[in-house]
Amino acid sequence: MQIKSLVFYNTEGEIRILPFEIGKVNIITGESKTGKTALIDIVNYCLGSDDCRISEGVIRDTVAWFGIQLQLETEQVFIARQNPNRLNQISTQYVYFSNADVVDIPPLAEINNNSDIVTLKDFFTKKLFIAEFTNQPESGTRDALSVNFKHSRFYSFQPQDLIAQRNFLFYSQSDSFIAQAIKDTLPYFLGVLREDTIRIEQEIASKKRELNRTEKELKEYNRLLEDGSNKTFELIEEAKQLNLLYSRRIVADEVQAIEALKEVLIWDENMEVVVQEQDANLKRLLDESEDLSKQLGVASDHLKAVQAFVGQTTDYSVEASQQKVRLESIKLFGESESEMHSCPLCSQTIHGNIPSIQAINNSLTVLSKNLSSTIVEKPKLSKHVEKLILEEERIKRDLETRQNGIKAIFREKDESRKLKDINLRRGKIIGKISLFLESYKIVQEDGSLKNKINLLRQQIKNLEELVSLEEKESRLNAVLNQINNQMTQWASGLDLEHQDAPIRFDIKKLNIFADTPTKSIALNHMGSGANWVAYHLLIHFALHRHFVKAKRPVPRFLILDQPSQIYFPPEKDLNQSGEILASSDETAVKQMYEFIFKVTKELSPDFQVIIMDHAKLSFGDFTDSITEEWRNGQKLIPMNWISNK
Asked: What's the pTM?
């Protein structure tokens, strides 16, 4: 995108055309108060800015419509936007728009609003091939930002009050929101974020959202597993109390319960059902509950008795085993009578009476038989205990089911006092059953949730490795190093301090540093307006050189307002000629312009520079590039427009 002309219409239909050449330096030199400074605001307004920054005065008093003729890669575009003063407004959202291979400048009579600035921005976003990319901040401290045509224009304007600024480099950077937008979108315009990277990051975000939803489903699945069974039978009892199911319907297990609940969903309020009183069901459940309580008491007593017997048997076995060991010590003595009076260990004679060997052996035989019988019966007792425990648990479950049914009936009785209309009450329970069955369906059909979660996590990991932060930072640093090296090479040809130091642009701080041997010096810590202007030119021409070489979607023009103001302010122009007398200042201004011409020629025909300046130099490139000279009464606005307003 380059500018072919700016067009101005007055209320009488007269047209003022300010032409520019494509791919070259275009200079407008002239006196103060001739309209030079307004050109940047006029271009920005015609390109769809939200507000109108064109200064009040002659221009806004005389112009009815502002127009711009643009040259795109394969077509031309003409845009006209009405002066908001004519509408008694601060700005206007509507524009006149036309495009074709070649666009003629239309007369005022043919200009009517046929589009708006939102559509205009969308058109240029697509025409410049700006990808549908949304910058997602690492933290949640600010909203995501979608890149569009508006963000591509920050590098095309250097107004008079910015080009010699020490604190800011880019257009509107003083606005903190715009400064952050530049930080967020410049990596994209530099080409660090390739198109496939953008697609992958969007796919990662999509899969993370899917993972979050699936994890929530799994959490709900686990919750339903915990309390699903009891809930099923509670709903059955509530349905019976409202005659949605026959009260004598037998539901033996959860499968039958689910089938019964599904039948409730096809219930017709006009169908005939056998009406049963709530009290009948309640009495049945209370009787069954009482009977089960008695059964549970008997089963528990029986279990305790058997467990006590098993404990006594175990104690007897231990005692008997110890006694058997003591009796078996008799085998230390021999079988003869004489051996009974001799110690089996030392063979000395034992004095005193000792029991007969036969009596001890008889006791040992009886004890061994009893002990063997106990050992044989013990496994049978253990199995019996296990059977009794299972029976007790079954009775507890049956009792709990009845008690849940009783609770459901009491809840329904309570609801019946609040909801008099039986169909309304039925609708409520049907809704509960429908919600429950929907959840139950998820539980039954989504058994692979864990596998799905694991797969999504692996897919996200693989994608993140393709666009890791380290890889992105590496590509960004590589591009910035090229830009920094280019600025450092150019620095020797300009009037600035620290020419021999490496020049570095910090994208996070949006500032330029000169890395001297002792320390890094930021632009806002450097003195002299000459330094500030020179560093503004260095970063903008280095960026545009990269934009052109890398074919990035940025407008191919740069507008500079008063770049020589530091050396040649208007008050020095005593004879109003704009000529700079021979001096070091003239040399510095010439160096600056030679740098501008050199880079523009290198990038031609893909780059255009428009300069508004008070100075008028005498060397060839400068004089050949003068588009108009606004002196001796010639200005942006024709004198007859002013006199006739």
From this structure: 0.62
